[in-house]
Amino acid sequence: MRKLLLLSNSKLHGEPRLEFAKDTIIASCKKHCVSDILFVPYALKDHDEYTKMMTEPLAAMGFTVRGIHTFPSPKQAVEKAQCVFVGGGNTFRLLKELYDNELVDVIHKRVMDGKLMYMGASAGTNVATASIHTTNDMPIVYPPSFEALNLVPFNINPHFVDPDPSSTHMGETRTQRILEYLEMGNNRPVLGLYEGCLLEIEGNKCILKGKRGAKLFAEGHNDAKETFTDNQDISFLLG
Which residues are marked as active site? Predict the structure, then answer.
């Protein structure tokens, strides 16, 4: 029985880091007897500094936190962990490190077997999905594949923003970028997850939580297919 918390972001404007998700994190970890968190800082270059930055809010919630990069064997660290928290940053760098350290298969198996709780934010949420095709990031490195951990059978676009009708910016909007992905024949739906929102997944149940909600994009639609709000059950996305 998989257990996941997938956050659109870890820092929300005007709030301390993880504040918007704090109650859900604490309640979910308590429910699943999680006291220790293995933090994965691969999405940023400075692993020590990133781990230190994320340890502060998680320790304030009562968790023991240790960076995966401090273990002699990252793979063994995952095999023994209660919970992994995969932080945000550059999605391409993150996925490459996961492949380089042979962690993709072990994380997938342990999460899907119900033996490892998974938490991710931003890039950490991107890699939890079927692929990283709908990330917002630049390909600063080349992972062996765009296929990701496949803990859920759809894609997510974190930090989703609606088009601004008053903007004079001439580049593509986030909506246009997602539709470009879908018009290539990709039949995986894409969930545009606004900042301050998260998905709480247990087994085949998925609940959207947060301040602004999410938009679903699917093949054959010229805009968002559906819009969801706080506490809405969107388990149908899990198939």
Answer: 122, 137, 159
